[in-house]
Amino acid sequence: MQGYDQDIQRELWVWQQEMQSSPGFFNRLSKSWQNKVNSWIPEKVHQVVTTTIKQMIRAVLFGAKYTSAPPLQSESFWAREMAVKERIDFYQKTASLEGAVTGAGGLLLGLADFPILLGLKLKLLFDIASLYGFDVKDYKERVYILHILELAFSSQEHRNQVYQKMVNWKEKAALLPDDIHQFDWRRFQQEYRDYLDIAKLAQLIPIIGAPVGLVVNYRLVRKLGVTAMNAYRMRILP
């Protein structure tokens, strides 16, 4: 599979350049418009989303809510990649169906989509980590998972900062506190909370919510999957 590894090396290089690129005009414009749209959303909606994200992320850092298979040890890199792609495809279809159902219900069911989709995203990341051979029982691996989540769903400016935290992760992880209770989990929920895709907010609108939820959830999970694959390739490939 030498040819496959070479292709992936090139793909990884392109992704790394993208992660380090400077925010462009359209990126800044999108961020500005996103902030404007957020200001139109009722405060109670923001409170629900913030509380949900806070509790989900605490659950990841403190351990016990998510179960994953033991880290895969004996498979080749190519076999791991094929298994990861299958998992991404499964979660894309699941999230797409879930988005269509909740989107059809307008505001109330649309709100339910946020915790459900976030849970699917996190479970996908746990599965991917295990398939690449990393043990998510180590809380520092769970921190890396949250960095992947940030990397996939943040402005380009913040993405640049997160990417630098992930480069040479073995050395960076050694600097993390041994006691998980010392870790500042609040920053994660704040960053993720501040980056809500405009299209996801459109899912709260009756009538158009179902098709929006179907398409957007599919794309968001795909984006997360691609980000996770490259984040682990960066640690595995020479």
Describe the structure concisely for a colleague.
This protein is mostly helical and about 240 residues long. The chain has helices spanning about 1-20, 25-40, 45-60, 75-105, 105-130, 140-150, 155-165, 170-175, 185-195, 200, 210-235.
Write the layout of secondary structure elements.
Elements: H1 2-19, H2 25-40, H3 43-62, H4 77-103, H5 106-131, H6 139-152, H7 156-166, H8 169-174, H9 186-194, H10 198-202, H11 209-236
Structure description:
This protein has 238 residues and is an all-alpha fold. The chain is 76% helix and 0% strand. It contains 11 helices and no strands. The longest helix has 28 residues. About 3% of the residues have low confidence.
Descriptors for this entry?
76% helix; 11 helices
Give the total of beta strands.
0
Number of helices: 11
Instruction: Provide the structure class.
Output: mainly alpha
Strand content: under 5%
Spans of at least 5 consecutive residues whose pLDDT stays below 50 are 103-108
Oligomer: single chain
Give a short account of the largest sheet.
none
Helix percentage range: over 70%
Mean pLDDT: 77
Which value, in Å, is the CA radius of gyration?
Answer: 18 Å
Strand and helix order: HHHHHHHHHHH
Straight-line distance between termini: 15 Å
Shape: globular
